[in-house]
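Subject: design request, 771 residues
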């Protein structure tokens, strides 16, 4: 069964299926319902509706109480405001949300602001965080004395507070003032790790992003744990009420009714996407429920339900962006295929193996004789079978666990005594399991935000159908987490969208976050078991899975050399130097809140310098700038951009020396292993195998054996000198083919852009750093 997944994002909550929660109108973030959003706010002054009074701000006459409703008195200054009014209130906890209420009087003093509020011990905007409100509905945000944001009271909607449009038509044909006049309730909520949400009862709202706070970090101080203060500008009349914002203790929210593509069994797993500061245990409890109504007659109806629970300060409420409910794929076979396994070796007349230095680059071409006899023995007509599982082993262990491409066969005449055409042949090409990754298409969107590299890679591989037992990611992959984005209504940092290919996602994880690592299939530590899809850190020393640090075999130029046998003699030797792909590397990510680029850059000036004397030029000298650009919107922090840039720089700026040699097939030696060649002249050279190919030929069968006993297995191997283990990522199993593809790669534009990146790359840079 394919993986089943349902993603609920900020715009998919079902208003008919929630209680005691609130979804803010700017970012679509779900939280426990603020007290000011209940009817009891205007009828009660206790519990979660408690208000602050004049005594909390050290105020006395002519300050007096004004009862505008039954929710507690407003603080009214019963005299003319001739020199400005202010008050310093109680000391708050870090990130304490507040409620500010005031009576606005039209355009009074509009250009200069009507009310300043903030969090600081200085009692003004020279420190901490402050907000200035204007009579036209606009607002400014300050931090430590500097203005860091200016907003329309209308948020992202048309600004109906705009003074340039003071009149609006009415149904009677006249006009009416559009400037607000009346009591206004404003919520100030530090939230989403680095934002201040401001929502007014007049309809205006905005969310300010503090750019000085790093993305992807929890526990940050948005507003300090200092005093809350206010200032009323001259000559505005003061009619104010303040409160520490509190929330409902519990609530729940459901996603819009949806349906599983297939009937699931068992219980699903969940991922809840929420503010990194509010991920305490028990704050959000997910489940799946059946919708009360099924208006669309869904075959397998479901709703994702989240139960929210309030926490201790400063985590009064979780801030939830979305959730995913999923069932993993069923990858194991539940029954033995008809006829069981077939042993095909006695029927092989030709076998060609090619292993290129690309992930999924292993394929074998097999020619079999008498296919009708094989089909009879196995109960299947293999001349018409495709996508059949075939495994190939040598004397060391299994080297290929593959899937067959559609077969092709030739007919002829020459029957055996059993009535089978002994001249009929069938050809089958076998691909490794990367074929599944190339064919797999995501049916539902699956975010990878916040997962470690290891978890993200294993998750995608399992959805493709490659079980975790056949996937290995070096331990360092668990130390690096993919950037987490606080989405606003369905935006994610790293989203496997519906229609994306599994191979593209796995390769992107490698290219962006493990560019210097080995990527591909490696033999299993248990030789009889299938090969393992591996993402291996060069520094990994895990027994059985890490890349070897010593040569598996030593080859000699002739059988006369000491220690040489006919199986350890190389018959040819040639070398090819590959120029560096680049010496100027730029990685561009995207700030997820403001959308502006984040840029990391690193240049190899020694490779670029024109004036360097020939004798002093480094091995990777080009004498010019050769650029490489990597634009990936999933990189949402400068730390991630620097990390990716450093890896790409290490990989792309190297001049590579590759060695081609021919010898007998080396059982047990695979891509990533080391081989030492004792050259006829010069010092021995140790190379890491990148690619190899060979055509195995049957030269004789002895006695009454049913299998070939004499087989010639000449192979061409390509190895790389040096410490790099990452793949060349070009096709070919000969020096000439690799060199041609390498030159083509260098000649192409080196700007690699993922979806949305072309827009990001054109915008002004938010943050640029040198790696």
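Subject: RE: design request

Done. Sequence follows.
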């Amino acid at each position: 069964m394919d993986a089943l997944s349902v993603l609920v994002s900020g715009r998919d909550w079902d208003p008919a299926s929630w209680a005691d929660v609130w979804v803010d109108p700017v970012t679509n973030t779900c939280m426990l319902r603020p007290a000011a959003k209940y009817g009891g706010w205007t009828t009660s002054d206790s519990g979660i509706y408690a208000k602050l009074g004049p005594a909390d701000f050290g105020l006395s006459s002519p300050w007096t109480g004004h009862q505008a409703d039954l929710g507690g008195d407003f603080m009214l200054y019963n005299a003319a405001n001739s020199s400005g009014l202010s008050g310093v209130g109680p000391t708050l906890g870090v990130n304490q949300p507040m409620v500010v209420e005031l009576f606005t009087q039209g355009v009074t003093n509009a250009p200069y602001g009507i009310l300043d509020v903030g969090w600081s011990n200085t009692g003004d905007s020279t420190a901490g965080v402050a907000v200035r409100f204007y009579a036209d509905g606009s607002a400014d945000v300050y931090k430590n004395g500097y203005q860091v944001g200016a907003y329309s009271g209308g948020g992202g909607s048309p600004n109906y507070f705009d003074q340039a449009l003071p009149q609006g038509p009415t149904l009677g044909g006249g006009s009416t003032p559009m400037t607000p006049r009346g009591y206004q309730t404003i919520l100030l909520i530090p939230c989403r790790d680095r934002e201040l949400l401001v929502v007014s009862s007049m309809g205006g709202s905005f969310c300010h992003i503090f750019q000085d706070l790093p993305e992807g970090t929890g526990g940050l101080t948005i507003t300090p744990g200092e005093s809350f203060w206010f200032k009323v500008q001259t000559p505005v009349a003061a009619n104010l009420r303040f409160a520490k914002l509190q929330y409902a203790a519990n609530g729940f929210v459901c996603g819009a009714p949806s349906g599983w593509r297939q009937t699931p069994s068992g219980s699903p797993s969940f991922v809840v996407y929420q503010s990194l500061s509010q991920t305490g245990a028990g704050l959000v409890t997910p489940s799946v429920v059946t919708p009360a109504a099924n208006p669309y007659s869904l075959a397998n109806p479901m709703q994702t339900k989240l139960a929210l629970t309030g926490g201790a300060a400063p985590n009064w409420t979780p801030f939830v962006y979305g959730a995913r409910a999923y069932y993993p794929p069923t990858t194991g076979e539940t029954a033995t295929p008809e006829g069981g396994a077939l042993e095909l070796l006695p029927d092989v007349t030709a076998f060609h193996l090619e292993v290129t230095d690309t992930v999924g680059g292993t394929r074998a071409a097999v020619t079999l004789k008498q296919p009708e006899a094989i089909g009879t023995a196995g109960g299947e007509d293999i001349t018409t079978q495709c996508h059949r599982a075939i495994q190939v082993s040598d004397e060391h262990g299994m080297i290929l666990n593959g899937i067959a491409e559609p077969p092709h066969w030739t007919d002829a005449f020459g029957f055996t005594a059993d009535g089978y055409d002994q001249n009929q042949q069938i050809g089958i090409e076998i691909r490794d399991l990367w074929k599944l990754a190339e064919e797999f298409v995501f049916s539902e969107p699956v975010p990878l935000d916040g997962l470690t590299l290891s978890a993200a890679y294993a998750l995608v591989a399992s959805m493709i159908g490659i079980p975790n037992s056949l996937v290995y990611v070096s331990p360092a992959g668990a130390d690096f987490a993919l950037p987490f984005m606080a989405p606003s209504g369905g935006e994610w940092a790293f989203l496997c969208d519906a229609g994306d290919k599994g191979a593209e996602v796995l390769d992107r994880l490698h290219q962006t976050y493990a560019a210097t690592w080995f990527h591909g299939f490696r033999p299993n530590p248990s030789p009889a078991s299938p090969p393992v899809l591996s993402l291996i850190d060069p520094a990994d020393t895990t027994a059985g899975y890490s890349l070897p640090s010593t040569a598996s075999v030593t080859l000699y130029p002739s059988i006369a050399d000491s220690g040489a046998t006919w199986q350890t003699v190389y018959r040819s030797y040639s070398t090819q130097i590959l120029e560096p792909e680049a010496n100027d590397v730029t990685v561009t990510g995207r700030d997820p809140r403001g959308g502006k680029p984040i840029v990391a850059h690193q240049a190899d000036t020694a490779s670029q310098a024109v004036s360097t004397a020939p004798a002093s030029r480094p091995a990777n000298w080009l004498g010019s700038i050769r650029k490489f650009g990597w634009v990936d919107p999933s990189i949402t922090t400068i730390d991630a951009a620097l990390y990716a840039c450093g890896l790409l720089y290490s990989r792309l700026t190297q001049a590579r020396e590759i060695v081609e040699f021919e010898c007998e097939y080396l059982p047990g030696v695979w891509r990533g292993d080391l081989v030492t060649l004792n050259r006829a002249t010069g010092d021995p050279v140790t190379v890491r195998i990148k690619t190899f190919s060979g055509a195995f030929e049957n030269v004789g069968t002895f006695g009454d054996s049913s299998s070939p006993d004499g087989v010639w297995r000449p192979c061409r191997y390509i190895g790389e000198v040096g410490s790099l283990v990452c793949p060349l990522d070009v096709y070919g199993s000969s020096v000439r083919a690799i060199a041609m593809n390498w030159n083509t790669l260098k000649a192409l534009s080196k700007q690699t852009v993922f979806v949305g990146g072309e827009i990001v790359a054109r915008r002004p840079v938010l943050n640029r750093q040198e790696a």
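Helices lie at 371-378, 434-439, 453-464, 502-513, 605-608, 638-652, 735-747, 757-760.
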